[in-house]
Design goal:
The complex is a heterodimer. By secondary structure, chain A is an alpha/beta fold. Chain A has ten helices and 14 strands. The longest helix of chain A has 16 residues. Chain B has one domain. In chain B, helix 6 crosses helix 7. The longest helix of chain B is centred in the N-terminal third of the chain and has 31 residues. Classes of the chains: A alpha/beta, B mainly alpha.
Chain lengths: 316, 257
């Protein structure tokens, strides 16, 4: 079954701005799905429509087969939303915020309290349950929003940049929590600007740009499109002169650092063999950039019209 | 969601509303009590004896129901407008909007929160009034019906204000430039019999006149307006405002993009 099925979804704002151009998107039940795109691409508008915070102009949205136009409440009861911006009362306590949210979904207070202990505890906030939310740190506020979205135990969890501004240690602990949640059967849709995060967590991916879905596939398939990977080589000793290698383009970064492009039809072994033959010892090696980032940037570039004035571009 | 789930959602909103205004009782419950004390001291004890009787009662007794009603009106209105706009401003209104709650449940929760504050403030101000004058109850049911309908009406009014408000200035304009003048001209301090005939007719267009007089009838048994007609007017206006509020929420005015 599809957890989310979007057909010809369109959004035109009152000022005439077209945020979504008849997009189609399907997310399977149990998926860990990344929805990526640059700022203003239409990610938050899509999420806003799914969570009913934004009125759509046209198209249909189904949540686990339930049409939002005809059975809005039933569809909404399956969704948990972690929005991009902090949106809880700054004057309420942590416990009140999560228990009230459960109440809005019809969860009785005793059950809500038991779940609050479970999720606040798992996210390291149970000790702070009686503190007013405004006293929490930025990372705690992010975790509180995730706990709040879990209180009614949704089948579909939507996270709009949940780790924005969060330090790496906390980010990785949130990743663990999200992996557990997904493994327990919850479908997760994630938007993020940390492409490393999407690559690490998500099995499926859609890229949205200028209100259109420009790619919708599995992460594995997307990364397989990457024909060339760039590596950084840290050398044991400074180079006297740049070596000339067969089939590998080396670039000098500094005396002891090189970058090299390795295409898919070449192996790293070949590179090392040629370097060893020239007496060059490599101390360490790493990817120059995140692989997903490279594909992402390439797809966005392909979706962009040629710049005005560029060779071959039509006159304005 | 089942009916029971709706009830849970409604009780959650109501509980949140009551907790909110009780948490800040220094801003919500105490000020009307202090203001009314000043009114009773100045208009009741200092100026009242020089005015003499009005409607067959001492002046302080005559104005007491109107002053109580004035507190109920401002408290019910202020509660909903500030709470709803605050929820919009801090964006936690989204907690309710993403949940599977019908708009009539959200509306009922906010209105009952406004009624709760209106009734609590009304009781506190009545206790203050009893320090200054004797009040007997002519008709409990009319008194209770007027307080309830008035609180509902102004809670609904506050919600409409909150829906359209885009800044904190917007939530003070109506109370300052509409509610306060209408309240002072609504027969709180005088009987409209004292006015020239033209202004008596103009006063009949002021809904607060009906509330104050119906409440005065419930307490003292005297009124410029027939109490039954006043209750009918309040019920009709409340029903109309309820319809307006529900339509606005269903359309997402002021809350959805």
């Amino acid at each position: 079954m599809h957890a989310l099925e979007i057909r010809q979804l369109t959004k035109v704002y009152k000022n005439g701005a077209v945020a979504l151009k008849s997009i189609d998107l399907t997310v399977d039940e149990g998926a860990f799905f990344a929805l990526l795109g640059p700022n203003g691409a239409g990610k938050s508008t899509t999420i806003g429509i799914i969570s009913s915070l934004v009125n759509k102009t046209g198209g249909t949205v189904r949540i686990f087969g339930v049409d939002m136009d005809t059975h809005l409440e039933e569809a909404k009861s399956s969704i948990g939303l972690v929005p991009q911006e902090i949106n809880f009362s700054q004057f309420e306590t942590v416990l009140d915020i999560v228990v009230n949210q459960a109440g809005y979904y019809g969860v009785r207070r005793p059950l809500a309290l038991a779940r609050a202990e479970k999720y606040l505890g798992r996210l390291g906030l149970w000790e702070r349950r009686n503190h007013r939310s405004r006293t929490l740190s930025g990372g705690m506020k992010r975790r509180l929003m995730i706990a709040r979205a879990m209180l009614h135990e949704p089948r579909l969890l939507i996270l709009d940049e949940p780790t924005a501004g969060v330090d790496i240690e906390l980010r990785r602990s949130l990743w663990d929590f999200l992996r557990e949640t997904n493994a327990a059967g919850t479908t997760i849709i994630l938007t993020t600007h940390y492409l490393e995060e999407a690559e690490s967590l998500c099995r499926n991916i859609a890229i949205i740009d200028k209100g259109e879905i420009i790619e919708n596939t599995t992460m594995k398939h997307l990364l397989a499109q990457l024909n060339v990977e760039t590596f950084i080589l840290d050398l044991r000793r400074p180079l006297a002169a740049m070596p000339d290698l067969d089939c590998f383009a080396l670039r000098r970064i500094d005396e002891t650092t090189l970058s090299v492009d390795i295409s898919k039809d070449r192996s790293v072994n070949e590179l090392f063999a040629q370097l060893s033959a020239r007496g060059i010892e490599v101390a360490s090696m790493r990817n120059k950039a995140n692989r997903l980032e490279e594909v992402f940037m390439r797809l966005l570039a392909e979706n962009s019209p040629p710049e005005t004035g560029a060779p071959g571009a039509p006159p304005p | 969601m089942t009916r029971y789930a709706y009830l849970v959602a409604f009780v959650t909103i109501l509980n949140k509303e009551v907790t909110r205004f009780m948490r800040i009782w220094l801003q919500t419950i105490l000020p009307p009590a202090i203001t009314m004390t000043l009114y009773f001291v100045i208009f009741g004890h200092l100026i009242g004896p020089r005015i003499g009787e009005m409607g067959g009662f001492r002046y302080i007794q005559y104005i007491a129901p109107g002053l109580i009603m004035m507190s109920v009106i401002t408290s019910a209105y202020a509660n909903v407008v500030s709470s709803f706009f605050g929820a919009k401003f801090q964006k936690h209104i989204e907690e309710m909007l993403v949940a599977p709650i019908p708009n009539w449940v959200i509306l009922s929760g906010y209105v009952c929160g406004g009624v709760a504050r209106g009734v609590i403030v009304g009781i506190v101000v009545t206790l203050v009034a009893l320090f200054f004058t004797d009040l007997h109850m002519h008709s409990f049911w009319i008194t209770a019906a007027v307080v309830l309908l008035t609180s509902i009406l102004f809670s609904l009014g506050g919600l409409i204000n909150g829906i359209f408000a885009r800044s904190f200035d917007d939530i003070t304009i109506i109370p300052t430039f509409v509610l306060t003048p209408l309240t002072y001209l609504g027969g709180v301090f005088y009987s409209i019999d004292l006015l020239p005939e033209f202004w008596q007719r103009v006063s009949l267009a002021n809904p607060i006149l009906y509330m104050v007089n119906a409440f005065r009838y419930g307490i003292l048994g005297v009124s410029d307006i027939d109490a039954g007609a006043a209750l009918l007017v309040l019920a009709v206006i409340s029903a109309a405002l309820y319809g307006v509020c529900l339509t606005l929420l269903n359309r997402g005015v002021g809350v959805r993009t």
